[in-house]
Design goal:
Nucleotidyltransferase, domain 5, single chain, 45% helix, 313 residues, alpha/beta
């Protein structure tokens, strides 16, 4: 029998991503706390191979704020942090981790792409009742993870590719709004990554069959869903479980990609700090749906943070 919320340990988990840092506090019978700060951790990576000093300062400030929230909770027994794509690529990862440790009080653990995919899968499928294959797609800032498995047997195969909202934006989308040639180049390179996924993960065909379920996690797809819904204020409950249809995703993509940033920021559902990054993320999402002929993706707000918390409890 699974332990009740009151019987579980109260834990705090932090994800240091390429675009944002996120906090989840859960368990122990207390309220669930979720916080997010846009830190643009991957700033500077494309040009220098290192994370900028300004980005490290933003991460430190975010984690210091998280530490205060954790301490004020008063009942957190365990805290942990993980880092993903930006930290994997950064030549100055040790500098980032030292600053993160100072801010949060624990040293982050670097996740490989496959570990990130495994945790995203576990978080997304927890509590689901689905008998067929499940494909979880996690579009991040610097990478996108694909994980296949089932709710009964867990993850079967996972793969991470180096494409994501921030990476596509910095490498291809220089104009405001992006020129058609820039968008075309971005989509072409994303397609090459997807060719790798198809070749390395033949099991993906099962998830794409009529009995398969496709789940999408991460800031790009939750933002695309929020824009499609037209949320004035972000509401996790409205986004979680929303079926984002391909036609709707294409429509949102066309709208966002053809607007200048100053016009784009007025779209309900679009966080101000994602205005310059969402088109890059939308490129990844729509190319995935085109490449695999996906008609809809179910949006999940549960991801690697939820899986990490469950492991600690």
């Amino acid at each position: 029998m699974a332990a009740s919320e009151a019987e579980t340990k109260r834990v705090a988990v932090v994800d240091i991503g390429t675009i944002s840092c996120r906090l989840l506090i859960t368990g122990g019978g207390g309220p669930v706390v979720r916080e997010m700060r846009i830190t643009r951790t991957g700033e500077g990576l494309r040009d220098t191979g290192s994370i900028s000093a300004a980005a490290i300062e933003r991460v430190t400030a975010a984690l210091s704020a998280f530490a205060q929230i954790i301490d004020s909770d008063g009942s957190v027994e365990t805290r942990t942090a993980v880092a993903t794509s930006a930290a994997r690529d950064a030549a100055n990862r040790d500098e980032l981790f030292a600053a993160a440790s100072a801010g949060l009080g624990v040293e982050p653990r670097l996740l490989s792409g496959e570990e990130e995919a495994r945790l995203s899968f576990a978080g997304a499928v927890a509590g689901l009742d689905h008998l067929g294959a499940v494909l979880v797609i996690d579009i991040g800032g610097g990478s996108t993870e694909f994980a296949i498995g089932s709710t009964a047997d867990g993850i079967e195969r996972a793969m991470s590719v180096d494409t994501g909202a921030a990476r596509v934006t910095s490498e291809f989308l220089e104009s405001d709004p992006p020129h058609a040639a820039e968008l075309s180049a971005a989509l072409s390179v994303i397609e090459l990554h997807l060719d790798d996924v198809t070749r390395e993960m033949p099991e993906i065909a099962d998830a794409l069959s009529s009995s398969g379920l496709i789940l999408g996690v991460g800031g790009t797809i939750t933002t695309m869903a929020a824009v499609e819904i037209g949320l004035i204020e972000y509401d996790r409950d409205h986004v979680h479980g929303f079926d984002l249809e391909r036609a709707a995703a294409e429509d949102v993509f066309r709208t966002l990609a053809t607007e200048a940033a100053e016009d784009r920021r007025h779209n309900p559902g679009l966080h101000p700090d994602r205005v310059d990054l969402i088109v890059g993320g939308a490129c990844v999402l729509v190319e995935i749906m085109r490449h695999y002929d996906i008609e809809n993706i179910r949006v999940s707000e549960n991801d690697l943070l939820d899986a990490l918390a469950a492991e600690l409890q």
